[in-house]
Amino acid sequence: xxxxxxxxxxxxxxxxxxxxxxxxxxxxxxxxxxxxxxxxxxxxxxxxxxxxxxxxxxxxxxxxxxxxxxxxxxxxxxxx
Length: 80
Known about the structure:
Elements: H1 4-14, H2 17-43, H3 48-78
């Protein structure tokens, strides 16, 4: 039973510049990880279309793993 206006006002009153900064920093690190992993995996593709499919799957899996690791590191240092 919370109106949209009350929700927005309460959210904005609790939001700090540090929260926004952490969100932007995490997004930038995640984007950098995805880009570097995708490019490095893409450069090593062999085997035509089948190789592209395997490389894409590998890049997605490796990116997810590294994002989880990076998020754990962010959580450890930023939530102290």
